[in-house]
Amino acid sequence: MGDRPNKNGSVPKTVTELWSNWQQPGGAGPCSECPRHWSRRSDIPDQGQNEDPNNYGMKPWFAEGDFSPEVVVMGEEPGSRDPDTKKNQLNSQFKQTRGDIREVAEDSETIKQVKPLFDALYDSDIPTYWTNMTKCHPIGSNDNAVGQDVCCGLSEKVDRSYLRDELEELEPQIVITVGGPAAKKLLKLYGRQLSDFAKTTMSGDYLSGFHPQSNHNAPFEIATAFHPRYLFNSGEFQSRKSEIQNAQGEEQNRVKKPYYGQYGDDLVEWISTN
């Protein structure tokens, strides 16, 4: 992978600022109110009396791919993970680990299923950036809604939004949300309440259901896609299932690969005409 010239550009200011805020004990900016911050997590050793703080590998996951993107693909949050005492990054600068967008899918069993979408964008030479709506890993079985709202800027506890600042600095043509929570919170951030996610996601004229959403005030287009954990059992999807499988040349027992492949093809076609 990554056999063509690196076109990523310079690291966005919002990315380095978020990283710096996260590194500080207690956090700075929105990180100071977030229960997912490394200094307040219940799933790593207590940092209260520690003269040498350690994040135990619990770092934000965002800012992968191209820093001058036409497309941003946005997940809900990093998956849960076990602490790693060998990965203390509280004194290191932000360093992108995946300049090739396809490598994002290789690092997550869940997101790996979205790879046909990444492949379609890469093969069409469309600059693409990956981020998560909420930057840090969830905490076990805790209610993580507070952390999500703080990071998005939907909480009354914060006066700015990492997500809004990040996306607006990047200036993409379109943001693709993966999953219902990511779609609902991003649209809410830009003035729209989304009620029926499955129906809305499949309501476009393209075969995959792809279409830019309306009635929001974001300075970029927003389109929604299903998450790999989605059961793909809605009536709206089932009515197109066989046609999607046939278009992608897939067997009838495969659903997710043809869906993301078709979604990628439809997105590429839309970009070529807009």
From TrEMBL:
Residues 34-44, 78-87 have a biased composition (Basic and acidic residues). Residues 7-24 have a biased composition (Polar residues). InterPro entries: Uracil-DNA_glycosylase-like, Uracil-DNA_glycosylase-like_sf. This is Uracil-DNA glycosylase-like domain-containing protein. It comes from the Archaea. Residues 1-56, 75-97 are annotated as: Disordered. It comes from Halorubrum ezzemoulense. Residues 64-234 form the Uracil-DNA glycosylase-like domain.
